[in-house]
Amino acid sequence: MIEEVGTNYSSHIFQAYSGQILGKDAFLKLFLAQLENQNPWEPLDNSEFITQMAQFASLEELSNLNTNFDLMLKLEYIAQAVQLIDRKVEASDPKTGEIIQGRVDKVEWKEGAPYALIGDKSVPLTSITKIW
């Protein structure tokens, strides 16, 4: 009877997360569900427990590494954007398709990306086609 409950609960968890990547929160929920629903006559083996804890620690470190890479990428975008200040550029306005030429007065970060202010127009760096 206990095995059936554990099996049904596990299949419910996998249905809820099918097609999605299991993150650290989902992994922890699965791990806790496994501990709560284990057969008391056949508890989790110590080596299995240690293996799962090591996997969780690895998942946490990979998540931290991914966060650091995102930060490094953002800093790289900012460094590229700052180098354009006071440089003459040509860009295509993504909304109107209008070609804009002029000096970059300042750069700003909005909508998760760097933008260059050319006169009164703000364009994403990806829209800049020429730099003089």
From TrEMBL:
Q: Which domain of life is it from?
A: Bacteria
Q: Which family does it belong to?
A: Belongs to the FlgD family.
Pfam families annotated for this entry? FlgD
GO BP = bacterial-type flagellum organization
Could you list this entry's UniProt keywords, alphabetically sorted.
Bacterial flagellum biogenesis, Cell projection, Cilium, Flagellum
Name this protein carries in UniProt: Flagellar hook capping protein
